[in-house]
């Protein structure tokens, strides 16, 4: 089947999609957007987190056909047009929150959405918002640091 | 495999009538895992995402009609007052990402005993609005679960909504998992006090082939509260009553040993959760607790 | 369009440059936060096929027949391969013992063993075709534990063993056995005022790296193959792959793709040979990506273990002797089992002074999932048991458990049970002092003005307690891990460093085969090159097999070994630059001949700080390009009867204090804080060091309270191969992890550094267990602890 939807503000179309394919597969294998990661394909790790009509979801659990005519935002859309990193991306780099980096795209999408709704989250808020994103390398401490850092920098900038 | 994308509820019913084996997909939490892991290859997938009304709820004088696809995150945020038990249960569902997509229709459709919504739906006395091209019917939740991952739906029926009375008293939900977030239930328990009818309802998850109520425990507690005039006096529940309630809840379960936990532990944990959640709801009824207990900040 | 998303060279922007000792940021950080970083599962090639592996559904059986006819006839299928299609006489592989069939031959020995391969134009086509392969199994009895493995009439997991361990094991179902005998344990036991014994069980842990096994094999015009893959050791893979393909190693060109974590789980081969076989058979590029279910069968796990210990001590708290027996379940294939046995035996008593020991460690062949390398292997299992014993002895003596450990703590100059003298700092007592002296986190942190915050309570979001039943406990543990490859292995790493002038500026290019798996080796290599060569611009080339072996990214060894190789090669390059300078400018300034020379800030300077020349002027058009190997001090094999020998090159130490809150009624645990102190010799990159320690600590926490692969003891089938039922800690399970880093130099190591990665994984688990024991008063001889162990139900 054919599926068309908007990804990071640009209309995209995929042909010959098998009906059982996930949005994650279409993004990664058909649209050349492998930033969203395929760590568990069962909604238990958050590595494939994208925003569907603005809401963070596991793209592995969205059937490709369900994305028809909808708006999808992936990690590839976080940076500015000129490639400048968004505050949360920069904070992840600066705080040492990235090791192998496989969980990073999903965490960034989730953390970005958190800060959009809650610009100065408590540690409890951060932990709850990111409780659907597994990381195996960092022990999460530097991820917390990164979100705090992004919140502080954004707060200062306002 | 064919992907059916009805644009309206009527189209969805027509599609389901034409292809009774079609698998409805909304939040995708169960269906997509089965497809990704090659456990299931339905001939037809029936996408319900385009039917906006499934993601809405209506609040009447005494009841809430909750669309089958209202995501758990919206139940948590928007129905804490009306459906506190279900809101608490919603908060324990999987992860924020999944709570943004999944709704009670999925839990009911799959009818896994581990579905987090079931204990709250049982305790709240829900009715499932099922519909087909033949017509619509309300299935009392007590009649809905018919076996392991089986429910009372006819092959051509779809779940449109769930009807629940607005809470007339405190409700609680508690679930044991071996992780502090994003965990499937080892067992779960829901309780709702119904001061208007002087009744108590409960729900048990993951501790029997289907979600079940602890009817003997409910009847015992309601009688004990009545006899001691506690509904009026709002005095503390005697520890012996709470203890017996816990024993009866544990006895109502019919758990098994599996990779997630032992049968003995499940019975034990249900007793503990029954005693604690009774304590929380009763304290709230007495006017001591905060609105939804302490979990409001969670 | 040809191949896309292959690795690129890494260079850094101005802001992220730094030398050793600085918290320089990762050169791949920006790629990783933008989604641009090319992981092995992201590879794409026009016209590529998808490979799929059919795996056994039973643990032990003879294969009566395999019928691939219907699968081959499926439209879109390009190849179906079984054992009979293997092209050469070499049909097995293995890290040390070549006992693992590339595809099952006549028999399967564990659940999930590869039986057949399919290549097709879409993953779903491949899956459907694989489902049409008919394999007829005839069940064999399953070997699942020591009793069933070593029974006189036990079925042999491997018939006709010819490996070099078979001569010294008592039964062919024992892979390797290592005793260590020193002093006289019997006589020492007579001096003991207290003797404490215990039996301990360590569950099977999974590495659970997030990036699944994956890679792309591209057939080449010369008959060879280009393989892009996520691995821990390219050259070890190559040595195992090439003979099976019947190709010389030069025709198997391997490039490291982005690696989504490893932790030991990529030390063995997964899809490498399979992908190459399918590519060579079909003449098309073949990509294989495991999903999470398959990943649980696609790599080895941490050895589960049973451990028996006896400790004796005098009334004043001095250990008299230790006897122990450690039985590790290696599963169906050897993998790293011999090395795991060596570590378990040689580190079995922990970082303590004990002169009289009687130690035995062995690994079994069973029909359970194969086990091999995982962070801290051998030492992790032992640490769990000996630290439990240390607490027990302290309790029996009525002593403080930390003080008791400090009395017996080893130090520089201690002789290990193997007879090896510890000849660099071993600040065991000091590490314990540091974690103990830290203020305890406040009690009842869940209490807020709005009620209990369940996120801070056991059970977390599941709303199981608002404080009821919650008891706090505090526990301590310390551990010892060897760094680098031991027991006489020729452990070396290779670095190629090129220095040249580009656009008027000196630029260093570093090329190694080191697998960057997330640990930050690429960051450190650039830091070393900057410090040694006085340049700001460093380019890190992708790791591949065009340069010599870097050894494995394991055993906490890469900063020591490949870092050491980069340092070593940079020093040689630097000497070449000085030679060039002397030839060009030596006659103009006597300091060229007389002073100690350095490269700093793009210049040649004297140790007195006098600038002699710009590097750019020294080099001009010259390119200095060297590839050198680096070795650590040689080690010795352990004597097979006594275990004596200088087997290890370096030891590392970490201590933890765990603070937990346990819901004692429901048996649920919240770890409140997990403080760590570790000696790292020299922190080349402090930010990365702390990140390693926090990550290792968290993996230890996981196996303390939730992580276990559950294998059915009757069928040897894996019961929980998914992230729904194999749980790893979320951010709500992980506490604050304050880290105290000591830097006591090891004079034998580059920059004095000490390997970091593994030690924190050792002591974290027993510290958490000790804290839970304190909270509950229970003995808890098994990890992970499950709720039913805490409630007795």
Describe this structure in words.
Chain A: GO terms for molecular function: 2 iron, 2 sulfur cluster binding; metal ion binding; oxidoreductase activity. Chain A: This is Carbon-monoxide dehydrogenase small subunit. Chain A: Keywords: 2Fe-2S, Iron, Iron-sulfur, Metal-binding, Oxidoreductase. Chain A: Residues 1-78 form the 2Fe-2S ferredoxin-type domain. Chain A: It comes from Actinacidiphila paucisporea. The complex is a heterotrimer of chains A (158), B (298) and C (793). Chain A is 35% helix and 13% strand. Chain A has five helices and five strands. In chain A, strands 2-1-5-3-4 form a five-stranded mixed beta sheet, sandwiched between helices. In chain A, β3 and β4 (55-58) form a beta hairpin. In chain A, α2 (87-95) crosses α5 (141-157). The longest helix of chain A has 17 residues, at 141-157. By secondary structure, chain B is of the alpha+beta class. Chain B folds into two domains: 2-42 and 58-165, Uridine Diphospho-n-acetylenolpyruvylglucosamine Reductase, domain 3; 171-291, CO dehydrogenase flavoprotein, C-terminal domain (Enolase-like, domain 1). In chain B, 35% of the residues lie in helices and 23% in strands. Chain B has eleven helices and 14 strands. In chain B, β2 (23-25), α2 and β3 (44-47) form a beta-alpha-beta unit. The longest helix of chain B has 23 residues, at 263-285. Chain B is globular and about 60 Å long. Chain C has four domains: 42-140 and 212-259 and 266-298, Aldehyde Oxidoreductase, domain 3 (Alpha-Beta Complex), CATH 3.90.1170.50; 146-202 and 306-379, Aldehyde oxidase/xanthine dehydrogenase, molybdopterin binding domain (Aldehyde Oxidoreductase, domain 4, 2-Layer Sandwich), CATH 3.30.365; 427-480 and 649-791, Aldehyde Oxidoreductase, domain 4, CATH 3.30.365; 492-631, Aldehyde Oxidoreductase, domain 4 (2-Layer Sandwich), CATH 3.30.365. In chain C, 25% of the residues lie in helices and 26% in strands. In chain C, the strands form ten sheets. Chain C has a seven-stranded mixed beta sheet with strand order 5-9-3-16-13-14-15, with helices on both faces. In chain C, β25 and β26 form a beta hairpin. Chain C is globular, with a radius of gyration of 27 Å. The mean pLDDT of chain C is 97. Chains in contact: A-B, A-C, B-C. At the A-C interface, α2, α3, α4 and α5 of A face α1 and α17 of C.
């Amino acid at each position: 089947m054919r599926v068309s939807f908007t990804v990071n503000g640009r209309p995209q179309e995929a042909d010959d999609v098998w009906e059982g394919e996930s949005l994650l597969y279409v993004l990664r294998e058909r649209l050349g957007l492998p930033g969203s990661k395929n760590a568990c394909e069962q909604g238990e790790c958050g590595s494939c987190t994208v925003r569907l009509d603005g809401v963070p979801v596991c793209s592995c659990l969205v059937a490709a056909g369900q994305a028809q005519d909808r708006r999808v935002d992936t990690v590839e859309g976080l940076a500015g047009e000129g490639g400048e990193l968004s505050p949360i991306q920069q904070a992840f780099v600066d705080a040492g929150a990235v090791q192998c980096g496989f969980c990073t795209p999903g965490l960034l999408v989730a953390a970005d959405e958190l800060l959009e709704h809650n610009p100065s989250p408590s540690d409890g808020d951060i932990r709850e918002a990111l409780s659907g994103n597994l990381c195996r390398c960092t022990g999460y401490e530097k991820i917390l640091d990164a979100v705090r850092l992004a919140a502080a920098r954004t707060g200062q900038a306002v | 495999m064919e992907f059916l994308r009805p644009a309206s509820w009527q189209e969805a019913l027509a599609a389901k009538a034409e292809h009774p084996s079609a698998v409805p997909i909304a939040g995708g939490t169960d269906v997509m895992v089965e497809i990704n892991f090659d456990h299931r290859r339905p001939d037809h997938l029936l996408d319900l995402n385009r039917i906006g009304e499934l993601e809405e709820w209506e609040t009447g004088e005494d009841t809430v009609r909750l669309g089958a696809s209202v995501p758990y995150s919206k139940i948590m945020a928007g129905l804490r007052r009306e459906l506190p038990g279900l809101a608490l249960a919603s908060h324990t569902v999987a992860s924020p990402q999944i709570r943004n997509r999944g709704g009670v229709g999925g839990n009911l459709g799959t009818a896994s005993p581990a579905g987090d919504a079931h204990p709250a739906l049982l305790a709240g006395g829900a009715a499932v609005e099922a519909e087909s091209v033949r017509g619509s019917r309300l299935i009392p939740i007590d009649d809905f679960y018919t076996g392991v991952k089986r429910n009372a739906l006819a092959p051509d029926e779809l779940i449109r909504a769930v009807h629940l009375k607005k809470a007339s008293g405190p409700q609680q939900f508690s679930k044991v998992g071996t992780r502090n977030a994003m965990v499937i239930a080892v067992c779960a328990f829901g309780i709702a006090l119904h001061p208007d009818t002087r009744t108590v309802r409960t729900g048990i998850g993951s501790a029997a082939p289907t979600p079940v109520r602890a009817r003997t425990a409910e009847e015992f507690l309601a009688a004990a509260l009545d006899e001691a005039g506690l509904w009026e006096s709002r005095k503390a529940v005697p520890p012996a009553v709470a203890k017996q309630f816990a024993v009866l809840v544990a006895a109502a379960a019919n758990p098994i040993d599996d990779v997630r936990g032992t049968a003995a532990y499940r019975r034990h944990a249900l007793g503990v959760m029954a005693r604690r959640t009774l304590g929380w709801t009763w304290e709230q009824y007495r006017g001591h607790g905060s609105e939804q207990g302490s979990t409001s900040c969670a | 369009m040809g191949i896309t998303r292959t690795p690129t060279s890494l260079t850094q922007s101005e802001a992220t440059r730094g030398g050793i000792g600085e918290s320089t940021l990762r050169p791949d950080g920006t790629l990783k936060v933008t989604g641009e970083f090319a992981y092995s599962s992201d590879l794409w090639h026009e016209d590529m096929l998808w490979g799929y592996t059919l795996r056994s559904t039973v643990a032990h059986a003879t294969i009566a027949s395999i019928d691939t006819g219907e699968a081959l006839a499926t439209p879109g299928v390009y190849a179906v391969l079984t054992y009979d299609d293997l092209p050469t006489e070499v049909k097995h592989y293995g890290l040390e013992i070549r006992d693992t069939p590339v595809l099952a031959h006549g028999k399967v020995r564990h659940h999930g063993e590869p039986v057949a391969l399919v290549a097709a134009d879409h993953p779903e086509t491949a899956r459907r075709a694989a489902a049409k392969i008919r394999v007829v199994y005839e069940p064999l009895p399953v070997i699942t534990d020591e009793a069933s493995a070593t029974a006189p009439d036990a079925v042999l997991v491997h018939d006709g063993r010819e490996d070099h361990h078979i001569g010294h094991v008592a039964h062919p179902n024992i892979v390797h056995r290592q005793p260590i005998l020193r002093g006289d344990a019997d006589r020492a036991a007579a001096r003991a005022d207290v003797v404490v014994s215990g039996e301990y069980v360590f569950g099977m842990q999974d590495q659970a790296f997030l990036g699944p096994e994956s890679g792309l094999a591209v057939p080449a015009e010369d008959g060879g193959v280009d393989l892009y893959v996520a691995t821990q050791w390219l050259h070890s893979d190559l040595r195992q792959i090439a003979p099976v393909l019947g190709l010389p190693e030069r025709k198997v060109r391997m490039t490291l793709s982005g690696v989504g974590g490893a932790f030991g789980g990529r030390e063995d081969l997964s899809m490498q040979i399979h992908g190459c076989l399918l590519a060579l058979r079909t003449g098309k590029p073949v990509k294989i990506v495991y999903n999470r279910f398959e990943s649980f069968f696609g790599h080895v796990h941490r050895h589960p273990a049973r451990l028996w210990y006896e400790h004796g001590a005098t009334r004043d708290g001095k250990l008299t002797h230790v006897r122990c027996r450690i039985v590790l379940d290696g599963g169906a294939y050897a993998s790293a089992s011999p090395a795991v046995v060596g570590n378990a035996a040689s580190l079995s008593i922990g970082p303590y002074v004990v002169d009289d020991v009687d130690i035995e460690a062995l690994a079994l062949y069973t029909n359970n999932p194969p086990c091999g390398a995982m962070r801290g292997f051998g030492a992790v299992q032992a640490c769990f048991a000996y630290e439990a014993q240390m607490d027990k002895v302290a309790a029996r003596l009525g002593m403080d458990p930390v003080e008791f450990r400090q009395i017996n703590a080893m130090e520089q100059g201690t002789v290990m049970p193997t007879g090896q003298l510890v000849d660099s700092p071993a600040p065991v007592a000091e590490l314990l002092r540091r974690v103990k002296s830290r203020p305890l986190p406040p009690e009842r942190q869940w209490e807020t003005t709005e009620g209990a915050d369940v996120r801070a309570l056991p059970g977390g979001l599941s709303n199981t307690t608002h404080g009821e039943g919650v008891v706090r406990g505090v526990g301590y543990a310390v551990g010892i891990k060897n760094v680098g490859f031991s027991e006489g292995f020729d452990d070396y790493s290779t670095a190629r460093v090129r220095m040249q002038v580009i656009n008027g500026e000196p630029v260093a290019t570093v090329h190694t085969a080191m697998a960057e798996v997330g640990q930050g080796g690429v960051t450190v290599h650039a830091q070393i090159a900057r410090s040694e060569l006085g340049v700001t611009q460093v380019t890190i080339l992708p790791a591949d097999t065009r340069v010599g072996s870097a050894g494995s990214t394991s055993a906490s060894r890469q900063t020591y070994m490949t870092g050491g190789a980069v340092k070593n090669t940079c020093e040689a390059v630097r000497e070449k630059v000085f030679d060039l300078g002397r030839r060009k400018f030596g006659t103009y300034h006597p300091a060229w001949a007389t002073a100690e020379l350095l490269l700093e800030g793009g210049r040649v300077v004297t140790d007195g700080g006098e600038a002699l020349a710009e590097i750019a002027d020294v080099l001009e058009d010259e390119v200095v390009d060297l590839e050198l190997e680096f070795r650590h001090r040689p080690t010795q094999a352990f004597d097979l009867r006594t275990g004596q020998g200088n087997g290890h090159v370096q030891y590392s130490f970490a201590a933890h204090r765990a603070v937990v809150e346990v819901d004692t009624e429901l048996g649920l645990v919240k770890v409140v804080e997990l403080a760590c102190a570790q000696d790292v010799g020299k922190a080349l990159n402090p930010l990365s060091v702390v990140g390693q320690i926090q990550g290792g600590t968290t993996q230890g926490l996981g196996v303390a309270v939730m992580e276990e692969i559950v294998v059915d003891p009757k069928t040897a089938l894996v019961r929980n191969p998914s992230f729904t039922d194999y749980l790893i800690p979320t951010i709500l399970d992980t506490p604050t992890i304050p880290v105290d880093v000591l830097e006591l130099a090891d004079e034998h190591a580059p920059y004095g550094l000490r390997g970091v990665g593994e030690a924190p994984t050792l002591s974290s688990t027993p510290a958490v267990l000790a804290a839970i024991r304190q909270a509950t008063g229970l003995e808890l001889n098994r990890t992970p602890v499950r709720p039913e162990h805490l409630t007795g139900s």
